Amino acid sequence: MMRHLISAADLSRDDAVLILDTAEEMARVADRPIKKLPALRGRTVVNLFFEDSTRTRISFEAAEKRLSADVINFAAKGSSVSKGESLKDTAQTLEAMGVDAVVIRHGASGAPYNLATSGWIDAAVINAGDGTHQHPTQALLDAFTMRRRLIGPDAGLGQDLGGKRITVVGDVLHSRVARSNVDLLHTLGAEVTLVAPPTLVPVGVESWPCEVSYSLDQVLAKSDAVMMLRVQRERMNAAFFPTEREYARRYGLDSDRMAKMPEHAIVMHPGPMVRGMEITAEVADSERCTAIEQVANGVHTRMAVLYLLLGGNEPAGSPAARTEESK
Amino acid sequence: MSKILIRGAKVLGGEAQDVLIDGETIEAVGNGLSAEGAQVIEADGQVLLPGLVDLHTHLREPGREDSETVLTGTKAAARGGWTAVHAMANTFPVADTAGVVEQVWRLGRESGYCDVQPVGAVTVGLEGKQLAELGAMHDSAAGVMVFSDDGKCVDDAVMMRRALEYVKAFDGVVAQHAQEPRLTEGAQMNEGTVSAELGLGGWPAVAEESVIARDVLLAEHVGSRVHICHLSTAGSVEIVRWAKSRGIDVTAEVTPHHLLLTDELVRTYNPVYKVNPPLRTEKDVMALREALADGTIDIVATDHAPHPREDKDCEWAAAAMGMVGLETALSVVQQTMVDTGLLDWAGVAERMSANPAKIGRLDGHGRPVSAGEPANLTLVDPAYRGAVDPAGFASRSRNTPYEGRELPGRVTHTFLRGRATVIDGKLA
């Protein structure tokens, strides 16, 4: 494994499958009466959040605690950062307190990369979302969810997503989730199609390993999973689309559209959902929507990432251990 | 002042000749000139150029003396072979009155390393709302001829038209920073495949090109000359080429960094590569080189933009835009234009000395290397190869994109009106 997790594009197919297999192992721990592993006992992880994100922060915190790490939560708001402290000084201050890993969420694309490469600190860096760049653990938990649902928890072990057709719908331009998913799903052998109004597709998308379509209706029947991205209402003020209703009509997922999907196909959403905008309540609450499952899977996946990156003690007989030996 | 004999220098890259300086003037150029009573500098085949003239320098004083002062900036200029620099107006306070431009001009005279010709702001406070007192700045001791809101675009078409017209009264020129502001809100880097991948706000080429297209048409309509700062795209080149073919009085500059670096470097998220206009693509770089060679682009200007360390030692979005360039410009031009065969040294002299002096109507600079001319001279050793070490810079700032990069050529001597400002690569 690598030392840091900055971008989903940095993961090889084998790295990614190892993480997914390890996450499967972690999921089994969650079914036990005592959900805790001693793997990161004595290690300190700081959750360094420069952007508000209760979900992701709590997910990482749960993962860290289940691995017995000591957890420090640092939110920029109300801290020295809001008084003008630089990223460099904040990071060095935290490291001076003896931190083994930094989980960072930052509004500036590339901030985790700066932390990992500028020589400011030695700790392992895990990107929990940077600007409109990357959110690799989200892509991993999404891939984990797809593999479980489309192949199966046991049958999926050791498998990638070869041949699966994944459609990602929404504000691709501003989405780190979309970028991470395109990279990881491509690495795992899936065929990705992005669907969005042309205003929300970045110039330069032609170099991405995926297809782009402007019509949701044309791709639904050919999708094994449809991932809906959150669309912020304020985007329409910048003329990315005319009105909320027009967006919902053309790119929202409702029951009629869901009916066009193959029987087995799932609906995914990284949350938080804007019901009535990109997804109707009927779809969000349906059996086929994995939004809640993704939250649970997020903890398993982040446990796997922390465990593999920080090189904790191997739980006996885990598939992760076997895979690592065979590499 | 004593005599100096530069022996065996390839004047503009031609045959080796001797050049005798007497006082502030070139006394003679020829073979076997007498060294009697003169200090001798053995050029030994180095190339002698007229002192370089930069039309686009940020000296930061007054206001940001933590990044550069007129003194440190002119020392850096001398080390880079420059004998005159145009100090941009975006200081604090802005150089939009006779008082501020005279202050900068006076500081330049006191420094003694390089002539400083202040640029005046086009609009009060660079805000684009009210024309600054252009006439007062021109009539001041500083004698301002070039006006620019550089750092900001004069985006209002009427304001640009009026400025172009107004400066005709005293043969001034407006130098436009072409950047359509709405198209570049939140822009962080060139918009293209790399920005799409890195998730950094895109800075489309059209934001530059649309303003240039408008301004050359405005210049044609009102019969003014216009200068375009730091062209960075292949499309901008096409527009300027078209305008010149139509007889429009437009001149254009390119920076050394846009001749060498591309947006691929942004993949490092290292803010040292953050600059305005942004680094573009390989295709743009090649178009700019070709345009500089064929004369579509008239000059090289550094856009030397010093910033203190803390403004670059941070995440990309928080970093300041700009690079220092005075001390590396000639080396980059040698690598990209001379060593590639696109331009000879006479061509370099034209684009880095004669043409910028002409655009700025700057007397005593950009003159031929011949008897009777002012002894503003730069001696460069083109055979030198070495890695750029910012620790050796005279500039107060170190934000160079070339740290550790091997570049050819080195300025060994610079003469400002017969007085050496640089000897053997070191400040005199």
TrEMBL record, chain A:
It comes from the Bacteria. Residues 3-147 form the Aspartate/ornithine carbamoyltransferase carbamoyl-P binding domain. Its EC number is 2.1.3.2. The keyword Transferase applies. It catalyses: carbamoyl phosphate + L-aspartate = N-carbamoyl-L-aspartate + phosphate + H(+). L-aspartate binds at residues 83, 176, 230. Carbamoyl phosphate binds at residues 55-56, 105, 135, 138, 271-272. It is an enzyme of class 2 (transferase). One of its GO terms (molecular function) is aspartate carbamoyltransferase activity. Belongs to the aspartate/ornithine carbamoyltransferase superfamily. ATCase family. This is Aspartate carbamoyltransferase. It comes from Streptomyces solicavernae.
TrEMBL record, chain B:
It is an enzyme of class 3 (hydrolase). Residues 45-233 form the Dihydroorotase catalytic domain. Zn(2+) 1 binds at residues 56, 58, 150, 303. InterPro entries: DHOase, DHOase/Allantoinase_Hydrolase, DHOase_cat, Dihydroorotase_CS, Metal-dep_hydrolase_composite, Metal_Hydrolase. Pfam families: DHOase. Its cofactor is Zn(2+). Keywords: Hydrolase, Metal-binding, Pyrimidine biosynthesis, Zinc. Zn(2+) 2 binds at residues 150, 177, 230. The active site is at 303. Substrate binds at residues 58-60, 90, 276, 307. Gene3D superfamilies: Metal-dependent hydrolases (3.20.20.140), Urease, subunit C, domain 1 (2.30.40.10). Its EC number is 3.5.2.3. It comes from the Bacteria. Binds 2 Zn(2+) ions per subunit. It catalyses: (S)-dihydroorotate + H2O = N-carbamoyl-L-aspartate + H(+). GO terms for molecular function: dihydroorotase activity. Pathway: Pyrimidine metabolism; UMP biosynthesis via de novo pathway; (S)-dihydroorotate from bicarbonate: step 3/3. Catalyzes the reversible cyclization of carbamoyl aspartate to dihydroorotate. Belongs to the metallo-dependent hydrolases superfamily. DHOase family. Class I DHOase subfamily. This is Dihydroorotase. It comes from Streptomyces solicavernae.
